[in-house]
Write a structure and sequence with these properties.
The complex is a heterodimer of chains A (169) and B (605). Chain A is an alpha+beta fold. Chain A has four helices and nine strands, in the order βαββαββαββαββ. Chain A has helices at residues 21-31, 61-72, 103-115, 136-146; strands spanning 6-16, 38-45, 50-60, 77-82, 89-100, 119-124, 127-134, 151-156, 160-163. In chain A, strands 5, 6, 7, 8 and 9 form a five-stranded antiparallel sheet that branches. In chain A, strands 2-3-1-4 form a four-stranded antiparallel sheet. Chain A is elongated, with a radius of gyration of 19 Å. Chain B has 605 residues and is an alpha/beta fold. In chain B, 38% of the residues lie in helices and 15% in strands. Chain B has 23 helices and 20 strands. Chain B has a six-stranded parallel sheet, sandwiched between helices. In chain B, helix 3 links the parallel strand 2 and strand 3 (55-58). The longest helix of chain B is centred in the middle third of the chain and has 16 residues, at 355-370. Classes of the chains: A alpha+beta (169), B alpha/beta (605). Chain A binds chain B through residues 1-2, 15-16, 19-20, 23-24, 27, 31, 62, 65-66, 69-70, 72-78, and chain B through 130-131, 134-135, 138-140, 142, 159, 163-164, 192-194, 196, 303, 317-319, 321-323, 326.
């Protein structure tokens, strides 16, 4: 009866930019036991006072439907869109990756960064900070390559996503 | 208009935040609020003192204020209003708020807060009220500017009563209540983001009617959403049931939505529902759910819930659809509008229903009915011990004979289920019980709220001796406002439902479920200026009931009942509908395997 295969969903939520709105969304996920793989939020429309939350979550089809319905009934939520279901979309995140090392490892890090089109945004004689934007798995791959080359720390934004084509959500 | 109103109004048109709160409440048609004062809300209490439009009922505990507001709301269809102070005032209200959330009761709760400049400083009686109540409410507000007070109060009422109703908290810092601002009146513009769908999609209605017309073994399963939609929804439900000839069962929250005396009524369904209702749900081929939410007490083991039916689910809350049970036809909308659309579409559709199959279905249902699952055996000699079912039945019969508009509230436990089983509700809004949260201590304050709303009505809290002690302090409120609420205690000296589960599932180890050191309820009643009555054997029961109903004062009737009685039928937790346990007096042969035995082969069509 119930389909147990899980899928990942990228959900865009347009909310009133007001105090507590993020707490409502996060509380909904923790209170009902849903997963958050990634969550980003920022104001997107000052005149209409709107913020946009992008949530990457996973669950069975029934759970994903439930998540969207639960989000939609929060009072300050204007719109909920399942970008994964509603046609093609672009999902990107940005990361800053600090790598420390000298000699061969340093050269190798720089070469790989170049291949991944990561930009150097800070450098010392013994370290780099790379900035990189891309799909989550590309960032994952880069971070994994940096691990043996002196990876110090990573700061990632989480996923921002938007549908392809002329129409908004 | 109060003196201070006039004084401030004369010079500037400016009102204090507290005055704005009261003006907005008045504009919302509020005539009574349930509350308890404290430091942070003193400005509102001061403004209350200087006006006459709104009556304040002083409770004895903030939890009771919310339950009273729930009773008021559920018996009137209006929004219940609560006023409590910051810190412990707000935290005490939380149980009531969650209760209202689970049962979809519209309540607006005003909480005091420390002044804005002290928020976050761990000030005296400070609590993060919006943080604590976020998952306990439908929505909440912290008002930081007096300019927002009026708008927020109006919005809170809109949110509380619209869509699926629920509790809303407005947290009001003390400086915001004191500062002066303008009151702009009720806003005209629609809410920016919250606009629930109430009108059903015609395509969904057409699909549902096609499924209903093709049904051979249909059942209509109606819940609290029909009550919340207003009395018109109950009238339309009755019309639809009569029009279709389908059997109808109600959830605990839906009792009264369809007249219990109607031949097409199967009684309540679920864990302690009737044999016929549960087997009809199990064996049906088309299920029409109107305003119920497939609660686990109703469905039992999900995988075996009504395995061979097409399911239609009408609900105002889209998140209720496919939450527990996957359905074949979803209708989003207000119950009354859905019902009226279904009736119109049924009439317009030329397809003839399969009346032969329906007649056979009714014959099967009548066989199930003939099991008489609510039968109990009451010894008739005057000295016999009182069966709890008999006590409720006698109370029902005597109240019915009295002919007064009667409202029943309950606490939580065995007595609650017996009340649901043996009281025959003919009309909506007459039954107030804590369904979703199962809050012991709900019934007395809820009865208080009902009696405030209906001063002439007969209001009875059917209680257990354990539950009643959870909010017994409200006897004092009854005395203060001369509310003639009748508290009818089925006293079995046990937390009966806990004892029942311990008997059935924990080897009869009655761990901590005995009600030791009980008070003398007669003396307790008298100490609260009420009338105390007691019946310990069958011969005394009728006299006690008669006297209780005759007295125009609050009464506690302490009815000693059989401590060993269990509440049947029972679907054990996690079992399926056709694995019901019937009572010891059931005449028909039960399977050899004892409790939980499947009778599927014997009883299903």
């Amino acid at each position: 009866m119930t389909d147990t295969t899980t899928r990942q969903a990228v959900i865009a939520v347009l909310v009133e930019n007001e105090a507590g709105v993020l707490a409502r969304v996060i509380g909904l996920f923790s209170g009902r036991g849903y997963n958050i793989d990634s969550l980003t939020v920022a104001p997107v429309d000052e005149t209409k006072n709107l913020s946009r939350i992008t949530i990457v979550t996973s669950g069975t089809a029934m759970v994903i439907e439930q998540i969207k319905a639960q989000l939609d009934r929060l009072v300050p939520v204007h719109k909920v869109a399942d970008l994964t279901l509603e046609g093609p979309h672009i999902a990107r995140e940005m990361a800053m990756i600090k790598v420390a090392g000298t000699g061969e490892r340093r050269v190798e890090a720089l070469r790989i960064a170049d291949a991944f089109r990561a930009r150097v945004v800070d450098a010392t004689t013994e370290s780099f900070v790379f900035e990189m934007t891309g799909a989550t798995d590309k960032l994952d791959a880069f971070v994994n390559l940096m691990r043996p080359l002196g990876l110090v720390e990573v700061s990632r934004t989480g996923v921002a996503a938007i549908a392809r084509g002329p129409r908004g959500i | 208009m109060s003196a201070s109103d006039q004084a401030s109004g004369q010079f500037s048109g400016q009102l204090s935040g507290a005055e704005i709160v009261l003006r907005a409440l008045k504009d919302q048609g509020v005539d009574v609020i349930f509350g308890y004062p404290g430091g942070a809300v003193l400005p509102i209490y001061d403004a209350l003192f200087q006006q006459n439009a709104i009556r304040h009922i002083l409770v004895r505990h903030e939890q009771a204020a919310v339950h009273a507001a729930e009773g008021y709301a559920r018996s009137t269809g209006k929004v219940g209003v609560v006023l409590v102070t910051s810190g412990p005032g707000a935290t005490n209200a939380v149980t009531g708020l969650v209760d209202a959330l689970m049962d979809s009761i519209p309540v607006v709760c005003l909480t005091g807060q420390v002044p804005t400049h002290l928020i976050g400083n761990d000030a005296f009686q400070e609590a993060d009220t919006t943080g604590i109540t976020r998952p306990a409410t439908k929505h909440n507000y912290l008002v930081k500017n007096v300019a927002d007070v009026g708008r927020v109060v109006h919005e809170a009422f809109y949110v509380a009563r619209s869509g699926r109703p629920g509790p809303v908290v407005i947290d009001l810092p003390k400086d915001v209540l004191i500062n002066k601002g303008r009151y702009e009146g009720r806003p005209e513009a629609p809410h920016r983001s919250y606009r629930p769908v109430t009108e059903p999609d015609p395509a969904a209605i057409a699909k549902a009617v096609a499924m209903m017309k093709a049904a051979k073994r249909p059942v209509i399963y109606a819940g609290g959403g029909v009550i919340n939609s207003g009395p018109e929804a109950s009238r339309l439900l009755t019309e639809l049931v009569h029009l279709t000839g389908f059997p109808c069962t109600n959830t605990l929250m839906g009792l009264g939505a369809f007249p219990a005396s109607d031949r097409q009524f199967l009684g309540m369904l679920g864990m302690h529902g009737t044999y016929e209702a549960n087997l009809a749900m199990h064996g049906c081929d088309v299920m029409v759910n109107i305003g119920a939410r497939f609660d686990d007490r109703v469905t039992g083991r999900l995988r075996d819930f009504s395995p061979n039916s097409l399911k239609i689910h009408a609900d105002i809350d889209p998140s209720s659809i496919n939450k527990n049970v996957r359905v074949d036809c979803a209708i989003i909308g207000d119950a009354a509008r859905v019902l009226s659309a279904l009736i119109a579409a049924w009439k317009a559709d030329g397809t003839r229903p399969d009346t032969g199959a329906l007649a056979a279905w009714w014959r099967q249902i009548d066989l199930w009915r003939a099991r008489d699952c609510l039968r109990f055996r009451q010894a008739t000699d005057a000295g016999a011990i009182i069966k709890p079912q008999y006590a409720i039945q006698r109370l029902y019969e005597r109240a019915l004979a009295l002919g007064k508009d009667t409202f029943i509230t309950t606490e939580v436990g065995q007595h609650q289920m017996w009340a649901a089983q043996y009281w025959k509700f003919e009309r909506p809004n007459r039954w107030m019980t804590s369904g979703g949260l199962g809050t012991m201590g709900y019934g007395l304050p809820a009865a208080m709220g009902v009696q405030i709303a209906h001063p002439e009505a007969l209001v009875i809290d059917i209680a257990g001796e354990a539950s009643i002690l959870m909010n017994i302090q409200e006897m004092s409120t009854l005395a203060q406002y001369r509310l003639p609420v009748k508290v009818f205690i089925l006293n079995n000296e046990y937390m009966g439902m806990v004892r029942q589960w311990q008997e059935l599932l924990h080897g009869g180890r009655y761990s901590e479920s005995y009600s030791a050191a009980l008070p003398d309820f007669v003396k307790l009643a008298e100490s609260f200026h009420a009338v105390g009555l007691r019946a310990t054997k069958v011969g005394e029961l009728d006299d006690v009931i008669e006297e209780m109903l005759a007295v125009d004062r609050p009464v506690i009737a302490d009815i000693s009942v059989d401590p060993k009685e269990n509440c049947f039928p029972m679907i054990p937790s996690g079992a399926a509908h056709n694995e019901m346990i019937l009572g010891p007096d059931d005449a028909a042969p039960q399977g050899a395997a004892g409790p939980g035995v499947t009778e599927e082969g014997m009883v299903l069509v």
